[in-house]
Amino acid sequence: MRRCDKCNSDAIIYQRYSGMHLCESHFKEDLRRKIKKTIRKHRMIKSGDKIAVALSGGKDSFLLLKILHEIIAVRPDVELIVISVDEGIEGYRDEILSRALRFADEMGIQSRIGKFKDEFGVTMDEIVRQDFPEAPCSFCGVFRRAILNKLAKENGATKVATGHNLDDEAQSILMNYLKGDIDRLARLMPERSVDGLIPRIKPLREIPEREITLFGILEGFPTSVRKCPYADDAFRSDMREVLNILEDDHPGISYSLMRGFDKIRELLPASAVKIEQCETCGEPSSGRACKVCEFRGRVAVYGKD
Ligand code: SF4
Ligand SMILES: [Zn+2]
Ligand SMILES: [Zn+2]
């Protein structure tokens, strides 16, 4: 058994990118330190903030909530609330969400939940039955972001915190580079401020997914191994595979990719993000009609047929 490089106890992880073996307690300390450093570096939390934590029930969202809860314990000038979305995927999201909301409740944090059915009149199960050419995730992502933004606004939140990790971010950056989609790339900017959109923060953006998985196991987070029955994002899966292969030979390459993007984004003018106002709902949009209205209209039309 290898020994922890910091205290000589049994190591539970080897971080190839840092060359360190770490025991459980030093691994957890390292992870907390990195998250807090990310928050400071990007000035993600300011005095008077009310942070709406998007709790999906995945391991990332549990870690995010736990760490933010620890932070606000010593920062009485900051408030937390949990917001969750029920997409209406029977046997999947309903089960995960009830466990997640119990977790928030045990921490004494109030939660608000928004449902596709209440907001858009359809569940994801019903959308999938309508057999649209787009992958279900396209509808799901657009509707989910709209509900999270609405819940955050209704509850006076100043930020929405999401559990995107280093792997998620590196995949998104690479995907948008390869597609040449500068607009989407610019939208990945942390803490981007746009009228009508509550700024998003991603405190876990420098933490590799495997470390979050390990933390979740050590902490006994009530996650589920079940996958969404509609998960199908082939391009993102390719990016994951490519980055995993590269990471094997070049430890830390995902982090370098993200750091490189951070430097580029500092050079992008604010006008790189095209923001108009949707003519139908008035919400910020990349064109004259927002995706929410477009999808909402199509779902309703198909629903009546
Ligand atoms: S995998 Fe796709 S359809 Fe399933 S919850 Fe995630 S975004 Fe929605
Ligand atoms: Zn140690
Ligand atoms: Zn609209």
Automatic annotation (TrEMBL):
The keyword Electron transport does not apply. Keywords: 4Fe-4S, ATP-binding, Iron, Iron-sulfur, Magnesium, Metal-binding, Nucleotide-binding, Transferase, Zinc. Its cofactor is [4Fe-4S] cluster; Mg(2+). It comes from the Archaea. The keyword Repeat does not apply. Residues 50-213 form the tRNA(Ile)-lysidine/2-thiocytidine synthase N-terminal domain. Pfam families: ATP_bind_3, TtuA_LIM_N. This is N-type ATP pyrophosphatase superfamily / TilS and TtcA-like protein.
